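Students often ask why we bother encoding 3D structure as a string. The short answer is that it lets us treat folding as translation between two languages. Here is a chain of 319 residues written in the first language.
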Amino acid sequence: MKRILGILSVLLLITACDDGNLTVENIDFTDVTVQKCSDKDILYKVKDTEMLILAIPASVFVNDETPENTSIETTIDNNNIQVFYRQYNGTVSSDNICPTIPAATPNLTEEWFVTSGTVQFTSTAVKSVNASTGVTQITGYKHYIVLKNITFQKPDGSTQFYETYPFGNYTTPTTALAFGFNDEADKSTCDNRIFNFNSSEAFILDLGDYDNLFQNSVTTTPRVALVSSTNKVVYRLYSGIVNDAYFCATTLPTTPTLTQEWIAENGVADVSGIIEVTTTTFGSGFLHTIHLKKLTMTRGNSDFYLGDDYLYGSFVVTP
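And here it is in the second language, the structure alphabet:
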């Protein structure tokens, strides 16, 4: 008889707990991938019947690296930035959060929302590397997101606090720079700048050592200079086509507009940032060919490597 009563007690306990709701003691999405709604500024993680949601403007994630040992921090204000935890009565998916009209099923059974705290993230560039040339291209930025000092408000009025809650990695894509230049460079018609144009791209050499580098005499060994504050190497991307006339205008045109600018790091003798020029005869003139060796281009805190030996191009000078 005691054995029967014991079995009945266990059955009653199981029945009492199975009321369709799950009592959540701890939120754990450690091994779950961060996803983003395609048409909404919502990042989310899904695990079976649970969902963790971070609503945050895309503009918060700037496509640039954060300096070492620093992070970007923004406050959870329940207006522009919100954090929710949700529990459903069935397997949940993006259909329950991303569409304008979310799926009706499964049903939401419990929701917690963060009343205070911050979002912190650090960003690093995602790069592809050309194995033969060593050239790197930035294809995106990975943002590692952590929720700090967050307090969840539960439906029953109680709260749950996390000092540090890792949300995960979110990657924003970026279009790799085309660098679609050929080997035909041009000397400016208004000064000593040298240009290589490709539609909306301009690769510019503004060299204080111009007279030394581009002497009208054949070289036996390359003439060499280092990238510096007076020997500038700059890549610019514009919103439309640019040419020599654009740069030589007395007043710089308002269109097209500059969208990106990358500047070469200063060189180190025999190590990096080297400008080499070889000169040969070309008819009655001289052909100057420019190689850029071991250049690193920078913008903000981001950089990419232009390769061990980049052929910038050639131009002809007729005395």
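Translate back mentally: The longest strand covers residues 108-129. Keep this in mind for the problem set.
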